[in-house]
Amino acid sequence: MECRNCRNQVEDNTAVCPHCEAVLKDPWELKKKPEKRPTADVRYELVSTNYNGLFKIRKCSDGSYICDCPSFLTQNGTKNGDYPFVTCKHIRSYISEHPDEVNCSNPRLPSEWQRLL
Q1: Helix, strand or coil for residue 117?
Q2: pLDDT along the chain (117 residues), means of 10
Q3: CB atoms inside a 10 Å sphere around CB 31
């Protein structure tokens, strides 16, 4: 297959050209289909310290955690520190209380869609 931007040869089904970083596939084609999206189980619920609402911490099927607090959703005040996924203060607090639940020894590689973002 030839890159339409730089005309270099790339492997078939390549999403991003390794030479010029042009996006070769339609991003909507790369988006996870509903049946392939990771599932998430609620692990912990907590009331905000300033009473903004009830936040839920979920563990995804890929081993990462997500929170529905505004900080996590807007990626403001989050960090990638000791874990292979982004954490907010609620997730870090939960992990510190339940350290045996987190397995960071074999993190999954990002998908084509995640690398594109």
Answers
A1: coil
A2: 88 86 76 69 82 86 84 76 76 84 66 62
A3: 12
Nearest Cα neighbor of 92 from 67, 60, 55 is 67
Alpha-carbon distance of 43 to 57, in angstroms, equals: 6
pTM of the model: 0.55
Q: Which two tokens stand for residue 65?
A: 């955690």
Is residue 66 within 8 Å of residue 43, measured between CB atoms? no
Per DSSP, helices labelled H in 19-79 are 27-30, 70-73
What integer pLDDT is reported at residue 92 of this predicted model? 84
Closest to 43 in 3D by CA, of 23, 63, 14, 29: 63
